[in-house]
Amino acid sequence: MSFKEKNLKSQRSFSRSAVTGGIKKTRKRRIVVSVLSVAIAAVSVTGICTISSAHSVSGTDILAPGKFKYDKYDYAAASLAAAYDDRVNTNGFSVKAKNPDEQSSELAERPVVKLNKSSVTFKELGKSVTLKPEFSIKDAKLKYSWKSKDEKIAKVDKNGKVTPVKNGTVKIICTEENSGASAECTVKVDTVLVKGIRLSITKAELNLNDTKTIRAKVTNKAAANTKLKWRSSDKSVATVNSKGKVKAVSAGTATITCAATDGSGVKKTCKVKVNDVIGLKEIYLNYIDIQFSGLGCTEQLELMSYSPDNATNTQVVWSSTDENVAVVDENGVVYPVDNGNCDIVATATDGSNVKASCPVTVSGVVNYVEVAPDYTVVIPPNVNVNETAKSVIEEAEKYVGWLPYVWGGVDLTSGVDCSGFICAVYQKFGYNLWGIRTELINAGREVSLEEAQPGDIIVYRGHVALYDGNGGKIHAPTEGYMVTHDYGLGNYISIRRVIE
């Protein structure tokens, strides 16, 4: 056998292998194995065959050119089969074959995808670039798919629109699915990185179940990606959400870390200590507001309820936002001082800083006559303390402006307190109320404000006065002042009728 014959035989053998392997690998897998075997046998005998994946055929069909056709867009199969077809015509293909023994085939053109950009660099986030593919074969059916090799750096949508995410370099791949041809674009994201992070707090102490929000801010405004992520070093002690809200879970310590997401590696931490204490979440007072009319009256503020029910410490401290209007003692007793408005505030002492407040309004305070430090009682010349007036309220009026308030006082010539004043006045009319002096709410019977008459006893929380019959009262208001006649009744508890 001559060298030429050996060479042709070798070529035919190699081509048969290529056809078999290539067709099996074609993306659409349209050529069944049984047909391939027959087709290859036919090629080896005749060197003339038209390949088709539309249906299975017999050896006789294969030997008849034109009865076995391939999909004109199945480029891989067309290219491999072109060497054995007498003449293959497709869009973009033109292959001629001579005598098999003197075969000289021009292989079909391989399809190629090109992109309008081979590389893109982003200097800032929020921008985008749309890549446009171009196929080497005209009038072909095209179906493109897009993929980013790292979506944490840049994303691409189905239309080739590329959006940067964070600094880095990534390949964007465009594939024409019918042919398998693809192209790449190198995308580089090179933006201003975060230089620093500032936290509102770097240390916190919480009780069990308490929450605390840590506010974070990127220090350099030019940073392209200011998104931050949060992490707890021990979620069994304290957790943190995406907005920096920390929740105390169990006693112990944990480190809360706030870090940049742009690849800069910048981060900031906050140390959190959780105490083995169940803190108060809410507290409620027994009054929603207090209204004083004049001095002398007091009101008792206290916790009506709180949550959670199993709070470890329910103690509060009291304070006034304006002690020129009203003051409050350590037990929550509120005293009016002068006309105006303020709030009495209860603050939890368990470290939770939970608060509740009660608005206070003081009105009806007249120009009370104060008691001078060296005051000596001088009975006015027009007042006869030994003579009893015609009514309780007329009797009480005699002492206005000169009889001082004296703690525990019961004498109408030297000084009285609020209950001592009322008991002493009523004694003038033959009524002994001394046995219930501190509980005058039990005196006589209760009447409504509409029924009230001059001389009826007005009972407050911690104070008593005499009703003047005209919307006002006469009373010994408080230490440092004289017996006073003022107007407005305020938050009384009861009105009592002793004399019918």
- Alpha-carbon distance between the two ends: 151 Å
The helix-and-strand class reads mainly beta
Mean of residue pLDDT values: 82
Note the overall shape. Answer: rod-shaped
The number of distinct β-strands equals 37
Quaternary assembly: single chain
Helix and strand topology:
Layout: H1 3-25, H2 33-46, H3 59-63, H4 75-81, E1 87-90, E2 93-96, E3 113-115, E4 119-122, E5 129-130, E6 133-135, E7 144-148, E8 154-156, E9 161-164, E10 168-176, E11 182-189, E12 197-199, E13 203-208, E14 211-213, E15 216-218, E16 228-232, E17 238-240, E18 245-248, E19 252-260, E20 267-278, E21 282-285, E22 290-293, E23 299-300, E24 303-307, E25 316-320, E26 326-328, E27 333-336, E28 340-348, E29 355-363, H5 392-397, E30 410-411, E31 415-416, H6 418-427, E32 445-447, E33 457-460, E34 463-467, E35 472-475, E36 484-487, E37 494-497
Parallel strand pairs: 4-11, 13-20, 22-29
Antiparallel strand pairs: 1-2, 3-6, 5-9, 7-10, 8-9, 10-11, 12-15, 14-18, 16-19, 17-18, 19-20, 21-24, 23-27, 25-28, 26-27, 28-29, 30-31, 32-37, 33-34, 33-37, 34-35, 35-36
Structure characterization notes:
With 500 residues, this protein is mainly β. Helix content is 13%, strand content 34%.
Main traits of this protein?
13% helix; 4-stranded mixed beta sheet; single chain; 500 residues; 6 helices; 6-stranded antiparallel beta sheet; rod-shaped; mainly beta
